[in-house]
Give the backbone structure.
Amino acid sequence: MRMNYEMLDLRAFLAIVDSGSFHRAAEKLNMSQPALSRRIQALEEALGLSLLDRSTRHVTLSTQGRSLEPTIRRMLEEFESAVHDLSGEGRVLGGFITIACVPTAAFYFLPRVIGEFHKANPGIRFRILDLSADPALDAVARSEADFGVNFLGASRHDLRFTPLLDDPFVLACRRDHPFARRRKIGWQDLENVPLVGVGRASGNRMLLDAALGKMEIRPNWVYEVNHLSMSLGLVEAGLGMSILPRLATPQGDHPLIVTKSIAGPVISRTIGLVERTAGQLPPAAKLLRNMLVESWRG
């Protein structure tokens, strides 16, 4: 099949996806709405696919369009980066790096390392996909990200997992909570107190439940939330304590929350780099990847 389409057709498609309407996309691209419609029609005919579902009020991605959108976006970004490099605007090194990262690592580690990297390579642009564990793995596997930072992935045949550090689970409670004054807290102490935890579908929750199940410990999960940050909000409100990875706890001297180690068997997750087993990283992404390894292992 011969795919006869232009780069502007692809830009038109992404403009509609980003704006949610033909009218706003046409304004953004400085073209008439009929001209934009003709470009999308030509693109769909060239690909033999229906990319958009249209109604009188809304434009949404079709199933085929949803599958193809990340590839189109990445293809255009890589082309722009290549032109950027060849034009000399990238200074020492140019390019575009996309990282799929679990939120805790994205918040506490990436800003510092990326800041140092950007000083040495100001021509690099970044996209950070802060996703939960399984979607972040899929983003790397589908080439939507150059590589990832995750605590899952070691068992997937299509991904390579490089361990960087162990992140133990700890207890977070208010400074005025009785447990904050205890010198020692064991897992058994957490069976009869109200706890805040993330939902059962979370990778962190599944890891924790599996380890506690082997010890026959049954935590009293009174509250369940979708995100670790929300669990800390409930702890601040005095509704309970939370068991969560150390990286997810407030760093430094928090005015309301204190972090306590839990005695007994250490339950931890291993944070590491996730890469596709096939293919090689682009030069810019490879440079950042090596810098992350050196920084975390150091």
Observations:
- Residues 63-86 form the longest helix (24 residues).
- The chain has a mean pLDDT of 85.
